[in-house]
Amino acid sequence: MPKKPLDFKKKEEKRRKDEDLFKVVDSAIDTATYNGLMLVSKKLNLEEIFGSISSGKEAKIYPAKDFKGKFYALKVFYVSTAQSKKALIKYTKGDYRFEGAKVGSTRSLVELWTKKEFRNLRDMFDAGVRVPEPYIFFRNILVMDFIGENGVRAPLLKELPDDEINEDVYMDILEQITKMIKKARLVHGDLSEYNILVKDKKPYIIDVSQALPIEHDKSLELLKNDVENINRFFANKGIEVQGTDSFLSNLLGDLDVHNCGGSEDTGSKQDNPETGRDDQL
Ligand SMILES: Nc1ncnc2c1ncn2[C@@H]1O[C@H](COP(=O)(O)OP(=O)(O)O)[C@@H](O)[C@H]1O
Ligand SMILES: [Mg+2]
């Protein structure tokens, strides 16, 4: 038998290494996403990517572990869903941070959506809101801190046993909303017991792709809805809740809402996974 040429052998070895890293066969992952995952893995020194723990309307979540044993959550947005396209258009229109963005193909829309969630997480994290720390994004892949223990995710507020649902958790969530508004100047827009993980009694806010600046036309309506969702959940659990209107008037009373507009060129394609912030958006 003839010997295999050297570069062929090398390629085969590389493929085997990649397969080691990503043992999960997943039909949701197209070639471009797969290649993106390989790049992200290299950048973060990932040892393994595990099977998805959630398949939502717009994305799948995969836990991953680096060689030091640190866990990450990889949020991989589907590249072609009408859902993401509709939502993206709705939630980026009127957001001054994304006004200059070029959004032609569905893929570029989804990439912008990924970037938007990263930016929202970054702004919230920097403002001291308890969200998973975002690390990098690349194309339709966002990498953030894994909220859980040893690859087992923390329960959602929705899944928390009744005896762990108390006023402290409620007040803590109101505090996170307050920081979001006053420091990050963002409205979550889809806050509910389904988008809060609770670890060591502390609520972590997740799923922030649709979050909008408070200057946006729809922000007040969305904020009211967020607070109503939280109040409804805790009231149903027998916790005494603050009236939505009085909480909102306290929160917004001294807030200076002005349009700090200005369009930004969000660029089109990245070539490398990035970690900084100014060069990303
Ligand atoms: N950082 C994270 N750490 C652990 N689990 C996560 C993390 N982010 C998301 N999840 C899990 O994945 C699910 C879906 O994530 P989410 O961001 O809410 O996407 P969507 O609801 O749009 O599908 C969450 O309900 C949660 O169970
Ligand atoms: Mg969600």
Task: Describe this protein's structure.
- Strands 1, 2, 3, 4, 5 and 6 form a 6-stranded antiparallel beta sheet that branches. Strands 7-8 form a two-stranded antiparallel ribbon. The protein has a two-stranded antiparallel sheet with strand order 9-12.
- It is an alpha+beta fold and 281 residues long.
- A hairpin with a 4-residue loop joins β3 and β4 (71-77).
- The protein has 2 domains: 31-146, Phosphorylase Kinase, domain 1 (2-Layer Sandwich), CATH 3.30.200; 155-253, Orthogonal Bundle (Transferase(Phosphotransferase), domain 1), CATH 1.10.510.10.
- The protein contains 7 helices and 12 strands.
- Helices cover 38% and strands 17% of the residues.
- The longest helix is centred in the middle third of the chain and has 21 residues, at 106-126.
- The protein has helices at residues 6-21, 31-44, 82-92, 106-126, 167-184, 219-236, 244-253; strands at residues 46-49, 54-55, 59-66, 71-77, 134-138, 141-145, 148-149, 152-153, 186-187, 196-199, 202-205, 212-213.
- The structure holds adenosine-5'-diphosphate (ADP) and magnesium ion.
- Adenosine-5'-diphosphate binds at residues 53-54, 56, 58-59, 61, 73, 75, 132, 144-148, 153, 156, 195, 206-207.
- Magnesium ion is lined by residues 56, 194-195, 207.
